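DM from R.C. (forwarded with permission)

"hey, sorry to bug you on a friday — could you get me a structure for this? deadline for the figure draft is monday and I only need the backbone to look sensible"
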Amino acid sequence: MKSSLVLTTLAGSIFAAVPALASPECTTEAKDKWLTEDAMKAKATELGYKTEVFKIEGNCYEIYGYNKDGKQVEVYFNPVSGDVVEEEIEEKKDEKK
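My reply, with the result:
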């Protein structure tokens, strides 16, 4: 009985310490106000991104691809304005310190 209480407490502590992985808040506008997927892909290209994967994630458009510097990225866009909301640049193994 005592060991199950310890395990339950330990498991709860571990899950509380792990941050939630979620896409950012990009817009509260209805989807009929969003840029079309083709328009968003064109906007991403204008901004210097090469898109490998394009998808809707929550209330964002999201791409996986490369930025203008050739670095691998994951980018979330506001689907109404086409503005970048968040960009994560993937580090190569040899770039880590």
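R.C.: lifesaver. Residues 73 and 89 are 5 Å apart (CA to CA).
me: no worries. The chain has one domain: 24-95.
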